[in-house]
Amino acid sequence: MKAKTAVLIKDHTAEVHERELGEIGDHQVLVKLDTCNLCTTDYQQWMGLREKQGYPMAGGHENSGIVTAAGKDVKNIVVGDRVAFGYIFCGDCPACRAGNTFECTNIDFDAVSPDGYKGDMGIATYKLADAKYTIKVSNQLEPAQAGFVEPLGTVIHGIKKLHIQPQEDVVVVGAGTMGLLNALTARAYGARVIVSELTEKKLKRAESMGFETIHAKETEPADAVFDLTKGKGADIVIGAVGATKAYDQCLQMLREHRGKFLVFAAGYPEPELHISPNDIHYRQIQIIGTMGGGIGDFEEAAKLLSNGTIDVSGCLEGITIGLKDIQKAFEAASAPDAYRVTVDCQDV
């Protein structure tokens, strides 16, 4: 069968192409996609900031839909299930066998499809996917919220590395979509969460979700953190903005000893990290990198979304644009301070 798919053909230019999906495999499911949220990776390439990802790019991975057919060897997913997706993996290499499916050595994440496209083919009317990385969610979950399985899974992957203890002071620098997801997850894991942000819109959004906030334009963020923690400083700081100044602030907020700094965000152009190795040594600072997520992280994300433990409605901009107007969708998603913009994959 054929599917209509959004494709970036060059910077600032998105089109809808029709492509042949092929026959469903024995271990695959066919999913009629309802929505796809445009993530930073998607719209930054549209803006010309991630040219190295290549063209034509048929991206999109924050999507959700209903299974309309399943291969004969698919066991745990049936027609009518609402699903989202994790990352493809082989399941057989040493990394996969150790549970680190995101580090799979047998998958080429830059591969080109037989018909010449790169990407996950996720802003589309239909998608064929291997059942092993297809994640079931509650059928009652709104499609756009179900699309957060992937980004929330990447957040969970990083949060797990922090070993958060009840009522630890966690500061999230940046209240964009991924910053708010980090804040929501840290709170779900039992932390007291403070969010530092520059813009009024994002501060108000964080406050509406119940977080303590620091207005980084009106006060020195590190001073505010020490005031809020009675002079102790943050046990953990999560950098959700990929910028040198933000990283400087993150390091300044840490408590004197054994503080943890999670470098969650990449930055383009690449930011600098200013810290003395002696500080890391004497203060026993932990600088922790995180990237992607494994299949277990995505399954946990699906549970937290499905049972309502984490409500991601505040991470949506509240704008839905049809696939037929994909250029307008990228324009909206790349607007300053925008949260996730949703593409209606059936509006073609």
TrEMBL record:
InterPro entries, per database record: ADH-like_C (IPR013149), ADH-like_N (IPR013154), ADH_Zn_CS (IPR002328), GroES-like_sf (IPR011032), NAD(P)-bd_dom_sf (IPR036291), Zn_alcohol_dh (IPR050129)
Class of this enzyme: oxidoreductase
Keywords carried by this UniProt record: Metal-binding, Oxidoreductase, Zinc
PROSITE patterns: ADH_ZINC
SUPFAM superfamilies from the UniProt entry: GroES-like (SSF50129), NAD(P)-binding Rossmann-fold domains (SSF51735)
Every Alcohol dehydrogenase-like C-terminal domain range: 178-306
Domain Alcohol dehydrogenase-like N-terminal: 25-138
GO molecular function, one term: oxidoreductase activity
Needed co-factor(s): Zn(2+)
Enzyme Commission number: 1.1.1.-
Superkingdom: Bacteria
Similarity field: Belongs to the zinc-containing alcohol dehydrogenase family.
PANTHER family, per database record: L-THREONINE 3-DEHYDROGENASE
Name assigned to this protein: L-galactonate oxidoreductase
Organism, as annotated: Anaerostipes caccae
Lineage: Bacteria, Bacillati, Bacillota, Clostridia, Lachnospirales
Gene this chain is encoded by: yjjN_3
